[in-house]
Amino acid sequence: MGGKMASGLRTDLAACLGVKAESAISSNCADILFLYRQYKDFSTEISAIYEKIVERYASLHIRESDASGSVGTPGDI
């Protein structure tokens, strides 16, 4: 966790979240990363939220793949 964001990720996150200043994405990510590393309770909660998001995305991805006739797996995420 940490390091440089993948190319285009900050732009996509800003668009998805309705944030006008892309620099706000980097700033907020840095703040969250600090909190994640410093506070065990916070990191536990964030990890649980992340897992739920991944599960939800995987189930939607599989349903869309089924509808299109192609086979999808959670590993395709």
Detailed description of the structure:
This protein is an all-alpha fold and 77 residues long. The chain is built from three helices and no strands. The protein has helices at residues 9-17, 22-38, 40-68. Helix 2 (22-38) crosses helix 3. The two termini are 18 Å apart. The relative contact order is 0.08. Mean pLDDT is 82; it is low at 71-77.
Would you report the number of β strands? 0
| Overall 3D shape | flat
- What is the distance, rounded to the nearest whole angstrom, between the alpha carbons of the first and last residues? 18 Å
Helix content: over 70%
Can you summarize the main beta sheet? none
What gyration radius follows from the Cα positions, in whole Å?
Answer: 15 Å
Low-confidence parts: 71-77
How are helices and strands ordered from N to C?
HHH
On the 0-100 scale, what is the average pLDDT? 82
Class by SSE composition: mainly alpha
Proportion of β residues? under 5%
Discrete helix count: 3
